[in-house]
Amino acid sequence: MGKSAVQVHLTLSQSLRLCGENETNADCCLKPLCVLETLQVSACVGSTPLASLLIQATINARLFPANASSDNKTVFPNQVYQPLGICPCDLTSRACDARCCCDQDCSNEELKLFASHCLPGPYGGQVSPAPDYQCSMQSAENSPDWFPFLCVTSPLENNPYLGLFYQGDTIAPRPGPSFRMPLLSAPVPPSIYIQGSPVVTSDDKYFTIPQMVLGRCINGAPVAFLQNFKVECVTLFRSCPTGPPIKTPQKDLITEVLNGQGGIIMVNLTDEDASDKSLFLSRGQVNFTSETLVCENVTLALDYKFYWKGNGITSISLTRTVGTIVLNGSLALTTRYSAVFLNGESVAEPNSGNPGYQVGRPVIAGILDNNTELMQRTLINIWKPVGDGLCSSASVKPVVFGENSTSGCLLPIRQRNITQCDLLRETVADLQAGLTTATYVAQRGNPDLTSMTDWVNISFVTRNVSTATGAAAGVCGDIPSHQHIRVWSLTTSLVDGIPQREIQALEISYSMSTWALDCGGGDVSLCENLEESQLFPITSSVTFVDIPINTGPPKTRFQINFTEYDCTRNDVCWPELAFPFTRYYTGEPYSQSLAKGMILVFMFLAAAILGTPWRQIRQAWHNA
């Protein structure tokens, strides 16, 4: 098993059956402990032992019952009318249990010994006791005064204890948690594709592209219809790749896919050579060996375009970016995978809610096209630093509704830059302005591109830039180093219990800072050498503000402290006790509600007069 491990197989060549008394066959076990042997495996170099392993095998003989098992089955009564545990106190088989009067193993003489001390309740066999509400269960001495009016007369077969038994059925146990990777179920060939359904190949398999799942790149992730994605996967190599997806033969990429309309389409493959491989390779390498490897035709990117119409796919084009990599030690390779669904030449962009925004979905922005008067969708972005954290290599990420965030990157500044403050401010301002190119933001998560009522103007706060002085001292002020996005949203309604939020306003402002080269601490190279640089941060942040809903005039101190009489905050509302007798009650005619109210008052008075207090007063009066 390689250069550092050895796998040892031990095979038993005899039967594990126990030998009979007079059996002479050697292929059986003479004793119940059939095998007890110890084996030593040694690893030697020449005649010198370096390591040893002791293996002990203990195997017992198989024991079979002398008589075949009986086929007698225990017949249980119907549990609908008779519970399964008819005598729970019968604990000993074929013996009489003391005080268990339902034990069928007890004789009449044994039952006479403890007939007056039987175990009570369901444990003693009384699995269907008569309930307390039965009229026959209360005697005249201890029954309350209301019992004759409210007791129930019903047969004993109608017993609430029988509801504890569910037709004798069994419930299959739920499987416990497992750390194994779940197996994908066999795909069902689709009649038509709908949004989110997996794309299937002609041999009834999932069409897969590497995707990001739970923070990890999964090579065999199915592609969902009308769901775009773009991922980056980082892989560390010490030798040239040999398997997919980094090294995939051309015939495996040109696959046949079901189009969702009863036909089959084939992937059109186009290969491109990477002009700049620095976007895919890490900057540093760790040299474990002086051997240099040249890896040719390495897949650096796979970009799929799915053209769709209605509920089907019309064509699929794949652009594969390949390149030659020189490997000297270990190297981190960043491969890119993307899939985009196009209807004609337009990208199928998902909404961020219906109708209002949902938390975790991107905020939709727009740019008005003056020629067509249509809104072109775009995103509002903030910084997303990668690698060394420099702004030159940083990417951006969209602003997500309801999630506050702060990020940034580092900008290297030299002595010659700090002497040109106007140019430095303009450079930083252009970097910050590139994050947001839109001028409108959508109020709701499903905006109409043709209606301006669904869009709100983005408010840009003008920067107040003063005249720069002090450039000779290596100091520049009023640098727009921080961009802050503030979003005001309002909950307008509920749809199926989900709050629907709308954006009321969006403001983009800048915070100014002063940049100066730090030449202290004995390091004066920054101020003397014009090519030395110092890193300055450029940041961006987003904050969401919820606009409270106006619920009316403020409450008084009495309403805040004394909530006993607040009908909106208590289940019992004493001020509305006589509400059915008022003219505001419209559930039934006023005459009927008044008549029913009088009947209730009469019954209350009758119960008070005929109840226990008045009976005691009459008895005391009679005795006196």
From TrEMBL:
The Tectonic-1-3 domain, residue ranges: 191-318, 353-514
InterPro entries: TCTN1-3 (IPR040354), TCTN1-3_dom (IPR011677), TCTN1-3_N (IPR057724)
Record's keyword annotation contains Zinc-finger: no
Chain ranges passing through the membrane: 594-614
Short name of any one Pfam family annotated for the protein: DUF1619_N
Domain Tectonic-1-3 N-terminal: start-end pairs: 67-169
Alphabetical keyword list: Cilium biogenesis/degradation, Glycoprotein, Membrane, Signal, Transmembrane, Transmembrane helix
PANTHER family, sorted: TECTONIC FAMILY MEMBER, TECTONIC-2
UniProt similarity note: Belongs to the tectonic family.
Subunit structure: Part of the tectonic-like complex (also named B9 complex).
Protein name (database record): Tectonic-2
Organism of origin: Xenotaenia resolanae
